Structures are given as structure tokens and as C-alpha cells.
Predict the structure.
Amino acid sequence: MTASQGTVRLTTAQAIIRWLANQYIEIDGEELRVCGGGFGIFGHGNVTCLGEALHGVQEALPLYRGQNEQGMGFAAAGYAKQWLRQRFMFCTASAGPGTMNLLTAAGLAHANRLPMLLLCGDGFLTRLPTRCCSRWRIMATRPLA
């Protein structure tokens, strides 16, 4: 993060974490952060960006390491339910199977109207899909006749 002439330059992950750390809510006369922290399993797609951004705000947004993505999602849903949907936690997982394992918890949160933020990894811009994957994507998005 650098500042020059009043401009702050941040990565996307730094901007997201900075924004989350500065959101507050008043509950029973006490001002609390809306985001209570997060659960994470770092892998390809999220360790270099989100991990670095979270390192600077460990006190404000604690990160708890989960044993599996589905359990992290359910714990985040339980946190939101315990706070009567007024506060939430985020979950982060690597691209691919890690993100897929969060879908069950996302469905639970959606069905019960519980707030949850999923910050999932992504591939690099320089890693273009192979011909095989490109063909599959086109076939999967084609409307059925």
C-alpha cells in the first residue's frame, strides 16, 4: 500500500479487507465491527493476495484456520445466526475443489437468510484454458433446444 498526492494504491484484496475492517454496527449501544473475522484454508488463488492483506489487520479481523471448507462455512453460518443476522464472518478457500466444498454451506446460509461472505481464489490471468476446457465451457453454456 503506497500513498502519493492523496491517492492510496491498493490491491483488490487489500481494498476488500480494509473496507471490511471499517464497517461498524451499533448493537445495544455498543459499536462492533459488522465482520467478526474469517475462516480460511489457503491454497492456489488466495494465499498471495488475501493472506498478505489479512496479515496487517490480525487484531481487527482474526482469521481462524479450518479443517475443511464445509465446516468453515457452517461455522460462519452459526456465527451469523448467533448474532441474529447482524454480524457475519467470511470464508476463504482456494480455487477449484475448495470453493466447491463451500457450496453446501452457502446453500444453508441462503435457505436460512444468514449473511456470509465467501472470498474464493481465482486462477491467474496468464493461465488460459486449454482447448479441451474451452470446448467444454462452450458446450455447457449453450442453451438446450
